[in-house]
Design goal:
single chain, about 190 residues, Serine Threonine Protein Phosphatase 5, Tetratricopeptide repeat, 10 helices, globular
């Protein structure tokens, strides 16, 4: 099933047909798999929507109860929001180490908000060892992927962190950012 998550719907149909064959039983299996996939995706999205809605209403306890299972299953948006909840102690006990863990999981998947927050934690040494090079790496990645409305603000923060660095550290941070590639959780 992991291969199906990476495919478009049209390609999924081809893969499933080859897996199930063209017999009557195979078509039935194909139909059932398709039905399960179709029903699972909206339920997952609906749960995330409910969690984000609770977050927006500032009902952080409810948000955390909804987001935790989604985050554990690898949902980057849920992980990023959960990191914020742990960082600020809203709906859950404040815990910078836990916040850094959730931010990292989302950041590794390419979530720019989580990359930004993780970079700030590295800059301050909260929940992670203070590491200016790692902070700069994450802030560089976050700024590059930021939506236009927040890109300038993130660039200013990144530049402030850069003023604390030597030329060698700046080069090392840029190299780490260039070598980085997003990875999906399984």
């Amino acid at each position: 099933m992991e291969i199906l998550d990476k495919c478009s719907w049209a390609l999924r149909r081809v893969v499933l047909r080859r897996m199930c064959g063209s017999t009557r039983r195979g078509r039935w299996v194909l139909l059932m798999i398709g039905l399960v996939l179709a029903l699972a995706a909206p339920a997952h999205a609906q749960s995330l929507g409910r969690g984000l809605s609770a977050f927006q209403r500032q009902d952080y306890v409810t948000a955390s109860r909804i987001l935790i299972p989604l985050a554990e299953r690898g949902n980057a948006a849920a992980q990023s929001h959960l990191g914020f909840l742990f960082e600020t102690g809203r709906g859950v006990p404040q815990n910078y180490t836990e916040a850094a863990m959730w931010y990292r999981r989302a950041a590794e998947q390419g979530d720019s908000r989580a990359q930004y927050s993780l970079g700030l934690l590295y800059d301050r040494g909260q929940g992670v060892p203070q590491d200016i090079v790692e902070a700069s790496k994450w802030l560089n990645l976050s700024t590059a992927a930021a939506p236009p409305r927040v890109r300038e603000a993130r660039a200013r923060i990144r530049d402030v962190v850069t003023t604390k660095m030597t030329r060698g550290e700046i080069a090392q941070a840029r190299l780490r950012a260039l070598e980085w590639a997003p990875s999906r959780e399984h």
